[in-house]
Specification:
It contains ten helices and 18 strands. By secondary structure, it is of the alpha+beta class.
């Protein structure tokens, strides 16, 4: 077929125009669906590793980033990076957090996130052979207190990596309208994230799921002034628990007598199970599902955030030992009867005056643990 150059040019121009229109239509459709071009295609990606060498991850080289190192005081490390060109409520932030405390659990982290937002619950995903819990939450951002403005719908995504001690969290927080645009950066971080800390537990045995449920129900019981000792009300209201059970609290005859006067004779198998559970210590993690409850790790330690002069001041004070230490309660191991309907344990306060200790008998009724009898065996007024 012979064609004049001008005709051929017009035909090629028409084809080019059609292809351009098709490309524009495709781009518009992708943009409308939230599938914008991947930001990392235009960004230099670099490998990042903190000084503590807790992990490595690939992130955009030019983006603003900040590190927060709280390992010594709080066993916590944070890395935050911000997408350029985002400001005010429209910021886009990516974070890597390492909760290194042995008492910290992924279960509590997920519970806390779902407690204040709407989401479909956590799902399990396999990322490079590692089982990770993922979570997607729709929430709102509000202007800072005292400032005017409308709320902004945001999408938050989390990937929680359980470790032998503590866990990692990779998160992505962006306005819902642009969440798809920046998600490739989050995917790059997930694909490249490599933990560099111990993968296995330290061998310390943890309390059981049944015991976590009992402890959760324990704090839900109300103080009964007609049946329970005066200072037991502080125990029920406490919102801090030592992260290790205390072994060796043997029930003396006087305490057993007080409890049996309220409930009848205690099953000998229950007491034997209690004694066997108190031959060793058990770890308590933050799986007790009580709002605002914290777990204090390890031994009581002197506060590191106070200067030397203040430390000397406290040493001279009659109440120095109370000021230096955190306040909370310590549980013994928990004994059960064979039917798993009765439980016996010891609980004591620390860091407060008076310091008190109690033996407690609980019964499971309609699926919930209730306090049935309490006997005080210690009171120390400082």
């Amino acid at each position: 077929m012979n064609m004049q150059p001008s005709s051929l040019f017009r035909m090629l121009a028409s084809i080019a125009a059609a292809l351009l229109l098709a490309a524009l239509a495709t781009t518009a459709a992708l943009a409308e669906a939230g599938a914008a071009p991947k930001p990392q295609a235009q960004e230099e990606i670099v490998k990042f590793e903190p000084k503590g060498k807790y992990f490595s991850v690939q992130i955009p080289a030019a983006w603003e980033r900040r590190e927060f190192e709280f390992m010594k005081a709080h066993e916590l490390y944070e890395l935050a990076i911000w997408a350029p060109g985002t400001e005010a409520l429209g910021y886009v932030i990516f974070e890597v957090k390492y909760f290194a405390s042995a008492e910290k659990s992924p279960e509590r982290f997920i519970l806390d996130q779902l407690g204040s937002s709407s989401g479909n619950g956590a799902k399990e995903a396999l990322i490079h052979g590692r089982t990770v819990k993922t979570l997607e939450i729709a929430a709102d951002r509000y202007p800072p207190l005292g400032m005017q403005g409308d709320k902004l719908a945001v999408l938050r995504q989390y990937a929680v990596y359980p470790m032998g001690k503590g866990y990692f969290v990779l998160s992505y927080d962006a306005p819902a309208a642009v969440a798809g645009k920046y998600r490739p950066v989050y995917e790059t971080m997930l694909d490249s994230f490599t933990p560099q800390v111990a993968e296995k537990e330290d061998g310390q045995q943890e309390v059981s799921a049944e015991e976590y449920q009992l402890l959760t129900d324990f704090f839900g019981n109300k103080y009964d002034p007609g049946k329970q000792p005066e200072y037991f009300t502080w125990i029920l209201k406490a919102r801090a628990v030592k992260g290790m059970t205390l072994k060796g609290a043997a029930p003396e005859p006087g305490s057993i007598k007080i409890i049996e006067e309220q409930t009848g004779k205690i099953d000998s198998a229950l007491l034997e199970d209690y004694k066997s559970k108190n031959l060793r210590e058990y770890r308590i993690k933050d799986k007790i599902q009580v709002k605002n409850l914290t777990i204090h790790s390890g031994q009581n330690s002197q506060r590191e955030d106070l200067g030397a002069f203040r430390q000397q001041e406290m040493q001279m004070s009659r109440m120095s030992h109370l000021l230096r230490y955190e306040k909370g309660v310590t549980f013994s191991g928990i004994g059960f009867n064979k039917a798993r309907t009765l439980a016996f344990f010891h609980v004591s306060s620390y860091g407060v005056s008076p310091g008190t200790g109690f033996f407690v008998l609980m019964a499971k009724e309609d699926g919930r643990w209730l306090v049935k009898a309490v006997a005080m065996n210690k009171v120390v007024i400082y």
